[in-house]
Amino acid sequence: MxxxxxxxxxxxxxxxxxxxxxxxxxxxxxxGHKIIKLNIGNLAVFGLEPPDEIVQDMIRNMPHSAxxxxxxxxxxxxxxxxxxxxxxxxxxxxxxxxxxxxxASELITMSLNAMLNSGDEVLIPAPDYPLYTASVALSxxxxxxxLCDEASEWMPDIEDIRRKVTSRTKAIVVINPNNPxxxxxxxxxxxxxxxxxxxxxxxxxxxxxxDKTLFDGHTHTSIASLADDVLCLTFxxxxxxxxxxxxxxxxxxxxxxxxxxxxxxxxxxxxASMRLCSNTPGQLAIQTALGGYQSIKxxxxxxxRLCKQRDLAYELxxxxxxxxxxxxxxxxxxFPRLDPKLYPIEDDQQFAYELLAxxxxxxxxxxxxxxxxxxHFRLVFLPSVDDLADAIGRIARxxxxxxxxxxx
Length: 408
Fold this sequence. Notes:
This protein is α/β, with parallel strands linked by helices. The chain has helices at residues 20-30, 52-61, 75-87, 103-115, 131-138, 158-164, 187-200, 262-274, 280-291, 296-300, 305-318, 348-359, 385-406; strands at residues 36-37, 98-102, 121-126, 142-149, 155-156, 169-175, 203-207, 232-237, 249-255, 323-324, 333-334, 337-338, 361-362, 364-365, 377-380. Helix 4 (103-115) crosses helix 8.
């Protein structure tokens, strides 16, 4: 029979967070092995549950959530998002500027599908959250990666951004707080990015899904609050701050200078209508979440569970010879570096395979986040302190054996 091949549009699309190494882990689990998964920020599997008031409100509203909603979403949760943008000092947002989605991921892909023609370029950080690179490619565009500087706590390299702007550049992606590095960008850096966007008439795509997962008393500034003359699309949702990954409740806010973007916004409306609406139960969680007690603050405060786990992971990783890591100021991840002199890794996906096979620990290799060299990996610090200590102990043992095998 004639083989059925995947579309050529998928040729440059990959998502290694759920890639080949995870498939190997699943096979090992089927064979009876217990795998410690440090590959994905899926909070519920680590016992981090959503606030009970969100769950109870969804249960109460479930009998009335079987119908389609407006393609952009229900009025009440969209109004709650408007109030949230006011708290974040984003000017000029109305209910009509808010799109609800099946998680922020759906809306990110939708925004790029509506924007890009073949060959259009989008500036994306390296390391990145790989959905952006994949979605740009799937939309017919060309992902162009600007470097973030590990020596400067993973801040975007503004000069590298400037060098990579061309006549085909349509937008710049800003992931703040950052996944996978845990960096948090100060206002000065954000203003410089806004200036580049203003100068070259770029759309800013601002991923702020971790904007409440902040450690050590740090605060977050929405880049859209600094750019009322630049078109900004801000993405957020309940997955992380409210431990509700599976509810798939996210939103996109269109703000800034919208008059010149009417045709693009019409495209967004068209794509929103084509998917009919986002899931209604997830929509019903948004107003309660945004208006309720912000329990994430307890988790990230000194002595809170997430703070303790971050501190332990940082302490244990930096004790390993040849391992360095910038301590995260936000989010749920860290992006350790392996000294190439001690760890001469040529293929970091193979490195991840070997760690999985030998120690039953699953991580994601750094090149899976479009980092250009095979000398990093991402670690999720969501397990309890005992499980985290066990996992990093296994990583340390594996790295000790790796050093001995590759010593000259």
